[in-house]
Amino acid sequence: MTATDNSLEALDPAYVSDVLSRPPFVQISGVCNVRDLGSYPTTTPNLITKPGYAFRGAEVSNITEQGIQQMRALGITTVFDLRSDPEMQKYCTPIPTIEGVQILRTPVFTNQDYSPESVARKFELYASGTTEAFMKLYSQILDHGGRAFGTILRHVRDRPNAPFLFHCTAGKDRTGIVAAILFKLAGVEDHFICQDYSLTRIGREPDREKVLGRLLKEPLFAANSELALRMLTSRYETMHATLGLFRDKYGGVENYVKNFCGLTDDDLSIIQSNLVVPAKARM
Description:
By secondary structure, this protein is α/β, with parallel strands linked by helices. It is 51% helix and 8% strand. The chain starts with 12 loop residues before the first helix and ends in a 5-residue tail after the last strand.
């Protein structure tokens, strides 16, 4: 399934509800855009990505009691939070306490990266909505995110039986980069990686008004809601270009994680093995 993202209009609620009720989406009440990275085919015959192990989502700050029970039912014991302190303060979205779940701070950007000038430049790029602008933004994420991404990858290396969830604010950009890294290391073809990325267009729809409400408080967007809507885009071709960025600028995902995350060839071999299972294990 690939979400189309040519329109900035709201999606049909019945359509959204139907898609969200089926895999790869999973339900955690109070958390938007949650998906299981498992059950995707890989380039190795009869191997698929491990179901019920790696989950992606949006911020967990508003998780409900029902959501906590759903998270436990999924077996998630570790959550990696890619957000920075100024971001949480600005949106009043602190880290919740969830008994039995360890939430690890793994910010991609430092507090200094959230200066008013820096944020304004990022918003201007997002507002353009072009693939070229997203490549500038995603290059910044990759240049700054090595330590955070390395923490997640070491979890995969060391705890192959401990399901985890990783998230940023919306579960789109930083989260999408992490998902792409995991997929590529597992041997998933580019088409499926782009397809997963595009599903965020649907996954974020229940939080559409909340996100727009936040953005419209920014001076850049206050007088032009269409610019704000462009930040919600999650186009297949954007991730396709991102995978090209990995190849052209960083020498591929494996070289990126060795150079920016401090991992070795032995680490990668273990991580790759821990991310896949025989196809008969599909759930």
